Amino acid sequence: MVARAHVTDDGWFGGVFDPSGDHARADELHGDLIGILEAVALPIIVVGPDFKVDCFNRAATIALGLTPAHVGRPPSDNGLLAEFKDLEKHCARVIADGVSSRCEVAHEGRWFLLRVAPYTGRGEESAGVVLTLTNVTAFRASIDQAIYEREYTKAIFNTVSGPIVIVDADLRVQTANRAFYEMFQVSRDETQGVRLNELRNHKWDGPQLWALVKDAVSATAEFQPVEVEHDFALIGRRTLLLDARPLSREGHSEHLILLTFQDISDRKQAEAQLRRNEQTLKEADRKKDQFLAILAHELRNPLGPVRNAAHYLKLKEIPDPELKRPVEMIERQVEHMARLIDDLLDVSRISRGVLELRRERLDFEEVVKAAVDACHDEIDARHHALRVSLPKAPVTLHADRHRLIQVFCNLISNASKYTPVGGRIDFTAQQNGDTLDVWVKDNGAGIPREKLSEIFELFAQVDRSLDHQGGLGIGLTLSRELVELHGGTIDARSEGLGHGSTIAVKLPIAHAAPATVPTAITEPQTGAKVRRIVIADDNEDAAESLAQYLELDGHRVSLAYDGEAALKMIAESLPEVAFVDIGMPKVNGYDVARRIRESAWGKSIHLVALTGFGQDSDRQLASEAGFNTHLVKPVSPDRITEILAELGNSSKDKLPL
After folding, report:
1. What is the pLDDT of residues 323-355, one digit of tens each?
2. Which tens digit of pLDDT belongs to each residue from 175-192?
3. Contact by Cβ (8 Å): 6, 30
4. What are the CA-CA distances from residue 594 to residues 580, 599, 625 (Å)?
5. What CA–CA distance (Å, rounded) separates 491 from 569?
């Protein structure tokens, strides 16, 4: 057959068969061939044995910009194929060998896979080659990315300081990081594909460790890290924290297991040493308390008779006036020593957390009078001028009478010790809202400013003058602890040496007792301000800090850390107010509010939404769910106080406490 060619109007080149044949059949085959090639999305170029373009399909026109003008020209005249050097030689080799070939060609930032395949005519003679091009730019990018990610992961894998090994279901090592090889002193070659219990000189088949490793691999649920002590042949006895995680592989039914071995031997040894040190300190503390108790007992034994003898002599009214002063001195020093012993024991009780307050409703003025009387002899002995200024209106405290007298007596006595003979001490008190402010001020030696933060420490001594009276350094420490036990604060102020000092105390004032209560009140009464509150928040720090703030104000607070717990707690305690976080696990805040409002008991509870979202739509959602108030975190304590105050104090606004 003699073949000739022509180009269609749209640029498609077609072959025309021998005119002596069946023209109808030839036209039909020609049309089918064009249709098939036209449907192929890959660019196709047919090159004759003369290495000239015979024809191409529409995809080649679109992808390569071929036009009818390219027919009869070398394929290398096209911009893309021009990048392929020696294309004609390559085509000649394919025609000669009759074997297809392929290679990649880059053009304008894109990559193409060029396939060169031979084709033959009817007489089996070579008719040329067919060039096809596939855009592999995205594929190459994905390969590059995969290689990058593999190397990146490998770098991280080897950077981790703890040993990591990946095993299959049979516990055969697939790979491990550098730390694993270094710790267990093995190489990559001798571990690859080897079961852990067959690794050289490690005794991984020890019953305890091997059982844990097998459990880690076979566990269907998440494996919980466990500690294991094991004797390794090469590295000795170590404490390891073993953890395991399954690694799923797409297209594989079997999972790999990631095992990590964190060496916590040093930490465990340090913890053991800390426990030993703690036990030693506890034992030393116990012996100290025992010593103080014995010392107090032994010191008090002789003090009793001395005090009794001095009192007897005083009652006898010895006629010799020269004996009166020594008797008073004995009484004064006995009282002083008795207070020192009590202070020592009280500090010990407080440090052990066993000192309890016996609270009652007290008149502040009576407490001050008792404290001044207790210090009277000491003040007179140094000829100090003590001036007392108290509020005109009575002030009631809910406190331990004996302990408050002890506090104020210590403060007056401390001022007396560091104030020269003939000096002045001012005891001033003033009511400030719900707080009683007390100042004990002297014109003595003063305190260096760098020592102000130290004077409340146990056994602290600030040698403010050569003639200071001193002491054990426990009076101010005990005063601070007792004031804080009462819910108050204490601090020291001074302008420096030679400028005197002031000890300032703040104490909460007890609210008036209800007129309907005829018996003595033993607990603080804050009237309508005390409310029962539930705080529901999965952020424990946020919940507890809010609770502390509310409890400081006298409210009764319960905490829940998820939606289900919140619903249960609110249903059981029926609070007046519930602060509910929106984004909680198990049941979110909106659903909590809806369920509360659906219940008969939940209609009157004031619901406050706590959330990090503050858009109008968020407020609308909270309102629709049943919240009364919408607060955006972080919430100001003043705003919390305002909300509680706005609830009102009438019985209809409150549930029984």
Report:
1. 777 877 777 676 666 666 667 666 666 666 667
2. 888 888 887 778 888 888
3. no
4. 12, 9, 5
5. 40
